Amino acid sequence: MSPRAAVFCFDLDDTLVSESEYVESGLRAAGALLDRWAPAARSAEWMAALWRRDRPPDVFQRALARLGADPERWLPRLTAAYRAHRPVLTPRPGALALLGAITRRGDRLALISDGALDAQRRKWKALALPHRFDPIVFTDENGRACWKPHPWAYRRVMAAHPDARAFVYVGDNPAKDFLAPNALGWTTVQVLHPENLRRPLAARAGAAARRAVSDLAHVLDVAP
């Protein structure tokens, strides 16, 4: 690693990978249970298509109503299959090119991501990025109290790179991603991807990213 390098720390969901793609992957895994019971209904494909089109919060309930299936019997099974599935994911467009550009110029990569620990680990494994991230911090390792915007994870990244010349956090959610790194003096970059699940909101004082880009390709244009 180069001395006096910058550390580019990334969020995972809706930054390096599409959260909607993860949801669709989980719906297909859950729908496979229904397809074994009623194969002609093709519930896995039906649920994935419904999600792509409308993004409703009650996909399972709609699928069960379509089949006339008992929710008390099926909802727990579908939910468990969704939560435990091994996702099929691809990096966001531009992610691999950006990560390669960062490492080629001698800077470093790290990750901070919220979410249930087992699910986040499965996402990260499925993504299989060909670059070294150090550290990889899943905030749930230290309990829900340390999820963003708690500064614990950001301080872990700083402790791992005491010689860094700068720290950058790249995320999507102004409700939680940028408050702590702003307070710690980081450069913060919000990726405003049109397919993100959460639409941009007005951030409270100190919580807005210092920079915003339309896609990952422009991160190096605004970062140190």
How many alpha or pi helices? 9
Shape verdict: elongated
- Domain tally: 2
- Quote the distance from N terminus to C terminus: 17 Å
What does this structure look like?
- This protein is of the alpha/beta class and 224 residues long.
- The chain folds into two domains: 6-18 and 90-222, Rossmann fold, CATH 3.40.50; 20-84.
- It has nine helices and six strands; from the N terminus they run βαααααβαβαβαββα.
- It has helices spanning 19-37, 43-54, 59-67, 71-84, 95-104, 117-127, 152-160, 179-183, 219-222; strands at 6-10, 108-113, 136-138, 166-171, 187-191, 211-213.
- A six-stranded parallel beta sheet has the order 3-2-1-4-5-6, with helices on both faces.
- The mean pLDDT is 93.
Question: In terms of topology, how is this protein built?
Answer:
Blueprint: E1 6-10, H1 19-37, H2 43-54, H3 59-67, H4 71-84, H5 95-104, E2 108-113, H6 117-127, E3 136-138, H7 152-160, E4 166-171, H8 179-183, E5 187-191, E6 211-213, H9 219-222
Parallel strand pairs: 1-2, 1-4, 2-3, 4-5, 5-6
Helix pairs in contact: 1-2, 1-4, 3-4
Structure characteristics:
224 residues; 9 helices; elongated; 2 domains; 42% helix; alpha/beta
